[in-house]
Amino acid sequence: MALFKKRTVGKPGEWYYCLEHKKVEEGPECPAKDRFGPYATREEATHAMELARERNLEWENDPRWHDAPRGGDGAS
Fold it and tell me: Where are the domains of the chain?
Protein backbone atom coordinates (compact mmCIF):
# COMPACT_ATOMS: atom_id res chain seq x y z
CA MET A 1 0.00 0.00 0.00
CA ALA A 2 1.34 3.41 -0.93
CA LEU A 3 2.11 5.80 1.89
CA PHE A 4 1.37 8.88 -0.17
CA LYS A 5 -1.48 9.30 -2.60
CA LYS A 6 -0.30 11.00 -5.78
CA ARG A 7 -2.30 14.16 -6.43
CA THR A 8 -3.44 15.11 -9.90
CA VAL A 9 -1.77 18.19 -11.35
CA GLY A 10 -3.73 21.38 -11.97
CA LYS A 11 -4.54 24.84 -10.70
CA PRO A 12 -7.54 26.28 -8.89
CA GLY A 13 -9.76 28.16 -11.32
CA GLU A 14 -9.33 25.53 -14.04
CA TRP A 15 -12.51 23.67 -14.91
CA TYR A 16 -12.80 20.08 -16.11
CA TYR A 17 -15.58 17.80 -17.29
CA CYS A 18 -15.31 14.43 -15.53
CA LEU A 19 -16.28 11.55 -17.82
CA GLU A 20 -16.56 9.15 -14.88
CA HIS A 21 -18.94 11.28 -12.80
CA LYS A 22 -20.50 13.13 -15.77
CA LYS A 23 -20.16 16.51 -14.10
CA VAL A 24 -18.11 19.71 -14.11
CA GLU A 25 -15.39 19.93 -11.46
CA GLU A 26 -13.07 22.75 -10.44
CA GLY A 27 -9.49 21.60 -10.42
CA PRO A 28 -8.45 18.13 -11.44
CA GLU A 29 -10.26 15.97 -8.89
CA CYS A 30 -10.16 12.89 -11.14
CA PRO A 31 -7.34 11.29 -13.17
CA ALA A 32 -6.55 12.81 -16.58
CA LYS A 33 -7.82 9.68 -18.36
CA ASP A 34 -11.30 10.43 -17.00
CA ARG A 35 -11.63 14.12 -17.83
CA PHE A 36 -11.75 16.77 -20.54
CA GLY A 37 -10.08 20.11 -19.92
CA PRO A 38 -8.89 22.36 -18.58
CA TYR A 39 -11.41 25.01 -19.54
CA ALA A 40 -11.21 28.67 -18.55
CA THR A 41 -14.78 28.82 -17.26
CA ARG A 42 -17.38 26.54 -15.75
CA GLU A 43 -19.66 27.36 -18.71
CA GLU A 44 -17.09 26.06 -21.23
CA ALA A 45 -16.65 22.85 -19.24
CA THR A 46 -20.43 22.39 -19.14
CA HIS A 47 -20.42 22.15 -22.95
CA ALA A 48 -17.43 19.76 -23.16
CA MET A 49 -19.41 16.76 -24.43
CA GLU A 50 -21.27 18.85 -27.00
CA LEU A 51 -17.97 20.26 -28.28
CA ALA A 52 -16.45 16.76 -28.44
CA ARG A 53 -19.42 15.50 -30.51
CA GLU A 54 -19.11 18.46 -32.89
CA ARG A 55 -15.37 17.91 -33.34
CA ASN A 56 -15.85 14.19 -33.91
CA LEU A 57 -18.38 14.91 -36.67
CA GLU A 58 -16.01 17.41 -38.27
CA TRP A 59 -13.14 14.91 -38.22
CA GLU A 60 -15.29 12.06 -39.51
CA ASN A 61 -16.38 14.21 -42.47
CA ASP A 62 -12.99 15.79 -43.21
CA PRO A 63 -11.64 14.14 -46.39
CA ARG A 64 -8.06 14.94 -45.36
CA TRP A 65 -8.38 12.78 -42.24
CA HIS A 66 -10.86 10.10 -43.25
CA ASP A 67 -8.83 6.94 -43.90
CA ALA A 68 -11.47 4.21 -43.92
CA PRO A 69 -14.00 3.88 -46.74
CA ARG A 70 -17.46 5.09 -45.78
CA GLY A 71 -19.71 2.39 -44.41
CA GLY A 72 -16.80 0.09 -43.69
CA ASP A 73 -14.18 -0.69 -41.16
CA GLY A 74 -11.28 -0.28 -43.56
CA ALA A 75 -11.12 -3.96 -44.55
CA SER A 76 -11.15 -4.80 -48.26
Answer: 15-60
